[in-house]
Design a protein that fits this description.
The protein has 112 residues and is mostly helical. It has helices at 18-28, 55-59, 78-84, and strands at 42-43, 72-73. It has a domain at 36-94. It contains three helices and two strands; from the N terminus they run αβαβα. It is extended, with a radius of gyration of 17 Å.
Length: 112
């Protein structure tokens, strides 16, 4: 897989831009996504669920994630969470399903 430095609607942030981007994003992250006011405390891990072993790359991360601190995984596939828990002890879990509408209506209505 190749990492593209820019695309039609995005580009990678340069190292010099990272502090300003982090300051900007923190303004818009709701308090519920950072329960102890730590911006890196709430994360999502996206990888193909059939390749959950790739989570080991995250659990060996020593800069972005501090595995000695509380961590909140949001909207993360169960296979990924299970793999993550091999390296990180879970204290509390809330699980649920996420549904996506394949064919949304063209106009939003509030009628029942």
């Amino acid at each position: 897989m190749e990492i593209a430095p820019e695309g039609k609607n995005f580009r990678l942030v340069t190292e010099e831009e990272l502090p300003a981007v982090a300051d900007f994003l923190v303004q818009y992250m709701p308090e519920s996504l950072k329960p102890n006011s730590h911006p890196y405390e709430s994360v999502s891990v996206f990888c193909p669920s059939e390749r959950a072993e790739l989570v080991d790359l995250v659990t060996s991360e020593d800069v972005l994630i501090d595995l000695t601190q509380p961590l909140y995984l949001n909207f993360t596939h169960e296979a990924i969470v299970n793999r993550f828990e091999k390296h990180y002890e879970a204290h509390d879990k809330i699980t649920g399903d996420v549904y996506v509408c394949d064919n949304p209506p063209t106009e939003a209505t509030t009628d029942g």
